[in-house]
Write a structure and sequence with these properties.
Layout lengths: L1 H45 L4 H105 L13 H24 L4
Helix pairs in contact: 1-2, 2-3
Length: 196
């Protein structure tokens, strides 16, 4: 956005410069017209003189005026050519600035789109994390119930003592393994005696 604003400011400055040069051009053309009006006034003034005086005065004045006008026209043509060149350069610069503005806006649009996609992915990940947490809590709850049932089963066996403190998973497994081993031993003894 800052780049676009900077380009737009540059474009406004260039357009302001272009307007100034066009105004100067108009002023030069206006001055040229004024000189033509002055020349016409001089011409009208000499119309009132005698024919001979008029011819002499007109000749002298026309030579001077022609010389002055040629100098003015040459200077104005040179200045006008420079201004036209500058106008072309300014128009080219303005076109480049407009192209840069369009490019910058497109880049900004792409960045916004990428940011939107990233935000969407982040929201999807948050949703997935929430689902995982819920599933984990559910599994943890089932595991805890299963563990409690195992503890109840292990320590409800005749001859076993109630635990006095919180049991670790290893202690529960050891107690289960002990019961399994005892039952297997008992079955082996019964088999040896020929009992079903």
């Amino acid at each position: 956005t800052g780049a676009i604003s900077s380009l737009q400011r540059q474009m406004e400055v260039q357009e302001c410069e272009l307007r100034r040069i066009r105004s100067e051009k108009d002023l030069l053309q206006k001055q040229l017209r004024e000189r033509e009006v002055q020349l016409q006034a001089v011409f009208d003034k000499f119309c009132s003189l005698t024919e001979e005086q008029r011819q002499e005065e007109i000749t002298v004045m026309m030579k001077e005026e022609n010389l002055n006008l040629q100098q003015v026209v040459t200077a104005q043509e040179s200045q006008l050519a420079e201004q036209n060149k500058l106008i072309s350069e300014l128009q080219e610069t303005i076109s480049q600035l407009r192209a840069e503005v369009v490019t910058t806006r497109l880049q900004l649009l792409k960045h916004k789109q990428a940011q939107k996609e990233m935000q969407s992915q982040a929201e999807a990940l948050q949703h997935k994390e929430l689902q995982t947490r819920v599933a984990l809590e559910h599994i943890s709850s089932k595991f805890e119930r299963y563990r409690n049932k195992i503890i109840q089963g292990v320590f409800s066996v005749e001859g076993s003592r109630e635990p006095v403190a919180e049991l670790t998973d290893n202690e529960v497994l050891e107690a289960m393994q002990k019961i399994i081993n005892e039952r297997m031993e008992f079955q082996r003894k019964l088999k040896n005696k020929g009992s079903k």
